[in-house]
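Progress note, project year one: complex with heme C.
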Amino acid sequence: MTSSLLLASGAAQALDEAAAVELAKANGCLSCHSAKEKIVGPSYVAVAEKYKDDKDAVPSLVQSIQRGSKGKWGRTPMPAHDTMSQADLKTLAEWVMSTKP
Ligand code: HEC
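Model obtained:
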């Protein structure tokens, strides 16, 4: 029982990673963000850390990415990405939350 649960969660994480990196590249995320360094936007490590105890982190980040965000990290706003599908937004939000320092 336990081992199949572990396998299932491990597989889900491995699956998202490669697809998410492609999505992030294709949508220009990486020109403003990197995993560990602040560029224009916060590093994904910092985002994952900030929301680690927030059980609604993924839906909340989906909204930030889709509609844009301002005032949470500093004075520079993030533009909206309102042509992306919900599935792609969710993949990216989960990937950001899975970033390890
Ligand atoms: C033009 C630069 C730019 C691009 C492109 C960009 N971001 Fe951002 N992003 C920012 C900035 C600036 C912030 C901080 C906004 C704030 O202070 O609320 C941010 C914040 C975020 C946050 C944290 C939101 C929150 O609610 O705290 C996430 C997650 C994020 N970006 C993911 C992405 C993803 C995924 C993409 C690609 C689809 C992307 N960003 C594209 C500049 C950008």
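The mean pLDDT is 89.
The two ends are 30 Å apart (CA to CA).
No further modelling is planned for this target in the current period.
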